[in-house]
DNA sequence: CTTAGGG
DNA sequence: CCCTAAG
């Protein structure tokens, strides 16, 4: 219980401070005492012991500077309240946190080389995790310290340099309680540098006084936070190669892979240990990365449809899904973007799955015409802003390649298509790009306006700012331009374009003018007050580096903690690009058939069983999906055929649905599986349908 | 993790 | 489909 106490202390401190809280669903878990305690404690013990060993080993090496900062001291204090052997371990970690980066690296090396042997009871993964933990801790702590400005960058670099770090995904707790996620994996996967900083919950107070308190908080976290992410990272990196190879197929396939891989590769020596760690991971997330939702911490590409189950997600990543997922999400992102520009006929949903669709081949359009460029803050957080005093920093994560409308004959070769596309892209670049700035979806024209005047200060609408890349075909920057300019879509950072946005411009060029102002493509929600006072101007210069590649740029690595802190988080806005919902996959008649069949046999209260029975191999259908489908089926069956939409379901099936539904409603779906019951259902069904 | 429901 | 509350 000592541990518990300690935890409590830590948490209390935390809560007083910033109470990052995860989605309720997640939070809920945290409160499950049993799980919580067990997981935490066990994991902590494990960590503690590991940490202890690491300390011993590393003491002589890099970690000697255990207490160089306030934070470390504080951390120690916090720990002091406890009096168990674990205490030391914790201290260690805290101390580690205080150590310098170089320390991190050294430590890691050391660990891998030396400690590995000593910690035999843990498998390599675990060891790595620990190591990573240390590293992360450092980062976190540094954040606490005064090195902020550099920290982020440093981390970035560190990770990049690590040979194995392919897709580190780490969370950070900053002084202000912000969480940052860097998604290099994504970047690498695409060959694009990509850095993501997710939000921040900044609270001035905190900001000012992140000192001990924050430190303390961090300290308490240390043990938890890093592990999860690092664990992932390490394990992922380990199998990265393999994963990559195995992650090309479609969802189902790779899911399968992941499963198998997971079971084979990432498995701590002892199951129990694994479980503990897992639990730890989970709970950890709740606390450390609270606000996953809001902060989109791991969310970006990491948390997808399984966001609700962090661990699961992790698992996926361990097994390569991460990579895959990134691609997938990115694809979706693009698709959605293009949707906005498209002349219609494209719905995000329909496009979602095919990356190729990013390039529109519109037969009706003129050949290879570049309609416009659009920039989208990828993953919502594309533009991260930092405002420190008079400075506002914009971090443009990437620019979306302007949508291209290409007209090619059906018999054109892929090669020719590529060429055309290349030419189109090249043309854009060659002609020069013009950067547009949008605030609240409205183009800002007045170049002389200051950011302050424009409202682009930290607490103002940074999250409503968007940049667009416009082909400089039409040179100018005149006001009129707005309407003439090739379309620019901008995607304001945080929000995503409403899928079903009313905007339905025939030509993209019109989109902006018409659509944005009124129904924002992006931040409609935020438009509220400032709508009327939008200012326009254009900035001709953006971080060039970012513009160069149309593909996606990755500029501004310099996010600092402060930046984060400064970044106002608009609770309302959702950086959806990353959060995208799963692609819609209408049930086919055969699927419905299978579902009906299964429900007839199992009843309506055993979706998991139904899943296994009828959709065992359809990983994209979760039991929740099935349940939902059933729900809709019942509804569908009750409404008139005229009101039904989508692929028509045979009336026969609908009848069965109603019958089964009625039957199981009556029987409360109690003990089932018995044949007679099943027979009863069938019988009842038959009766009803005839 | 599953269920059950609301959105 | 998503999100949550509840087992």
From TrEMBL:
Domain Myb-like: 579-634
Keywords: DNA-binding, Nucleus
Keyword DNA-binding in record: yes
Nucleus listed as a keyword: yes
Gene: LOC103500226
Cellular compartment(s): Nucleus
GO MF, any single term: telomeric DNA binding
All copies of domain HTH myb-type, residue ranges: 579-638
Name of the protein in its database record: Telomere repeat-binding protein 4 isoform X1
Taxonomic source organism: Cucumis melo
GO cellular-component term (any): nucleus
Pfam short name (any one): Ubiquitin_TPR1
């Amino acid at each position: 219980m000592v541990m518990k106490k300690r935890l409590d202390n830590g948490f209390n401190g935390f809560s007083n401070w910033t109470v990052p809280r995860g989605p309720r669903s997640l939070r809920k878990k945290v409160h499950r005492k049993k799980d919580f305690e067990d997981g935490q404690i066990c994991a902590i013990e494990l960590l503690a012991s590991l940490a202890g060993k690491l300390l011993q080993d590393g003491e002589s090496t890099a970690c000697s500077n255990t207490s160089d900062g306030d934070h470390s001291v504080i951390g120690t204090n916090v720990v002091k309240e406890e009096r168990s052997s674990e205490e030391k371990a914790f201290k260690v970690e805290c101390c580690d946190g205080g150590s310098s980066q170089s320390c991190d690296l050294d430590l890691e090396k050391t660990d891998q080389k030396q400690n590995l042997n000593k910690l035999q009871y843990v498998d390599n993964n675990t060891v790595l995790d620990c190591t990573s933990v240390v590293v992360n801790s450092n980062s976190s702590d540094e954040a606490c310290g005064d090195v902020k400005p550099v920290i982020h960058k440093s981390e970035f670099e560190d990770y990049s340099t690590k040979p194995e770090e392919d897709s580190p995904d780490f969370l950070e707790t900053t002084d202000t309680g912000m969480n940052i996620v860097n998604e290099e994996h994504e970047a690498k996967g695409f060959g694009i540098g990509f850095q993501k900083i997710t939000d921040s919950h900044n609270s001035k107070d905190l900001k000012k006084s992140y000192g001990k308190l924050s430190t303390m908080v961090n300290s308490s976290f240390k043990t938890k936070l890093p592990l999860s992410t690092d664990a992932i990272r390490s394990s992922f990196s380990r199998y990265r190669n393999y994963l990559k190879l195995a992650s090309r197929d479609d969802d189902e396939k790779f899911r399968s892979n992941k499963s198998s891989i997971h079971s084979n590769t990432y498995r701590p020596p002892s199951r129990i240990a694994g479980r503990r760690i897992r639990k730890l991971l989970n709970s950890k997330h709740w606390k450390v990365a609270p606000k996953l939702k809001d902060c989109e911490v791991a969310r970006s590409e990491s948390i997808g449809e399984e966001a609700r189950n962090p661990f699961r997600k992790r698992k996926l990543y361990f097994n390569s899904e991460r990579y895959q997922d990134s691609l997938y999400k990115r694809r979706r992102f693009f698709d959605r973007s293009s949707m906005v520009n498209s002349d219609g006929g494209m719905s995000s949903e329909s496009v979602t799955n095919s990356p190729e669709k990013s390039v529109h081949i519109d037969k009706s359009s003129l050949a290879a015409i570049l309609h416009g460029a659009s920039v989208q803050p990828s993953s919502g957080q594309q533009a991260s802003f930092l405002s420190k005093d008079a400075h506002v920093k914009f971090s443009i994560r990437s620019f979306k390649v302007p949508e291209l409308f290409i007209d090619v004959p059906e018999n054109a070769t892929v090669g020719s298509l590529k060429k055309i596309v290349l030419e189109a892209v090249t043309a854009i670049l060659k002609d020069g790009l013009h950067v547009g700035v949008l605030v609240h979806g409205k183009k800002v024209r007045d170049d002389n306006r200051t950011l302050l005047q424009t409202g682009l200060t930290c607490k103002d609408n940074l999250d409503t700012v968007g940049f667009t890349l416009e082909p400089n075909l039409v040179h100018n920057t005149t006001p009129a331009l707005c309407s003439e300019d090739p379309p620019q879509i901008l995607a304001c950072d945080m929000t995503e374009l409403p899928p079903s946005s009313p905007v339905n411009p025939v030509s993209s060029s019109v989109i902006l003018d018409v659509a944005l102002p009124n129904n924002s493509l992006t931040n409609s929600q935020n438009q509220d007050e400032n709508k009327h006072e939008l200012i326009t101007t254009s900035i001709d210069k953006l971080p060039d580096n970012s513009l160069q590649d149309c593909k996606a740029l990755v500029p501004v690595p310099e996010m600092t903690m402060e930046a984060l802190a400064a970044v106002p988080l608009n609770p309302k806005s959702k950086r959806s690009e990353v959060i995208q919902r799963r692609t819609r996959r209408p049930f086919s008649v055969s699927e419905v058939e299978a579902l009906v069949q299964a429900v007839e046999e199992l009843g309506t209260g055993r979706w998991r069983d139904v899943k296994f029975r009828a959709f065992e191999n359809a990983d994209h259908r979760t039991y929740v999906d099935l349940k939902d489908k059933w729900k809709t089926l019942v509804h569908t069956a009750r409404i008139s055929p005229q009101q039904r939409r989508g692929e028509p379901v045979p009336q026969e099936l609908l009848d069965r649905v109603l019958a089964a539904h009625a039957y199981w409603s009556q029987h409360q779906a109690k003990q089932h599986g018995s044949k007679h019951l099943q027979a009863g259902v069938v019988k009842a069904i038959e009766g009803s349908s005839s």
